[in-house]
Amino acid sequence: MTLTTDLGVADEYVGVMKGVILSINPACTIIDISHEIPHHDILEAHYILERTYSFFPPRTIHIALVDPGVGGPRKSILIQTGRYYFTGPDNGVFSFVPYHETVQKIISLTNDEYFLRTVSNTFHGRDIFASCAAHLTLGLEPERLGPGIDQIVLLEEAEPEVRENQITGKIVHVDRFGNLISNIRQEHLARLSEKGSYEIVAGKKRIRRVETSYSAVPKGETLAIFGSSGTLEIAANQDNAAGKLELQRGSALIAVSRSAK
Q1: What per-residue confidence (pLDDT) applies to 259?
Q2: Which partner from 51, 145, 160, 213 sits 20 to 30 angstroms from 61, CA to CA?
Q3: 145 neighbors 132 (Cβ within 8 angstroms)
């Protein structure tokens, strides 16, 4: 089981969630992916989980808790795919799942038999998600947790806008090196390259090819590259691309066919 949250580690919240899980199944293995998601930042949690979940063994349960709508009308859900389980608030944090996995079931968590005895309106991570996930590790059938639903909330920012001659994406993450990581995947650019040459527009910078290594350009020069997660990023060899280009998370990154000009 994994945990991805915005709870930090200074307070008791993460420890309490682990206590709930281990009280139900003392043999459960719990891995922390990150508890340093910026507060209420659903898109960042989506980014981190999308790039990590598949490195875990099949049947891993991934709990995501970035939940600014806790206690409100948003659903608590469990997604079962051919390989994994995902549980958390239905607020878009799992938008990546239908694009990468075969969704088998989506369950609305409503059966309070598997919740903690008293459910707080402010901490469903402890009272619902941790408890339900722990019961799953003991072999509970997902259907016991509530009724099936047809779809989940999807973040508009999670996917780029793809047109015939242009792909408009966004910078979804800036790492500690200043690399500008986008939501444009290799298959997106492959479609564009079928039409001929293209260029990538990052702020005032125009880049006409994708490199295979950071060192393919001189030190300090900016470049486009597909990073370790398979999405397009703008980097600078041994320098900070975000600072050089004055771009940040949320900035546009555009790939446009040169034949369309």
Answers
A1: 65
A2: 160
A3: yes
Query: What is the C-alpha to C-alpha distance for residues 47 and 136, in angstroms, rounded to an integer?
Result: 25
pLDDT band at 260 (very low <50, low <70, confident <90, very high): low
Distances in Å between the Cα of 31 and the Cα atoms of 123, 135, 183 are 20, 17, 26
Domain 2-145 fold: Rossmann fold (3.40.50)
> What is the phi/psi pair of residue 23, to 5°?
-70, -30
> Residue 170 in contact with residue 251, Cβ under 8 Å?
yes
pTM here? Answer: 0.90
The token pair at 184 is 């444009």
The domain locations on the chain are 2-145, 159-260
Superfamily name and number for 159-260:
Bacterial fluorinating enzyme like (2.40.30.90)
* Nearest partner of 49 among 258, 229, 178, judged by Cα: 229
pLDDT tens for 108-137 read: 999 999 999 999 999 999 999 999 999 999
For tokens 């402010």, the residue is 122
User: Fold match between 2-145 and 159-260?
Assistant: no
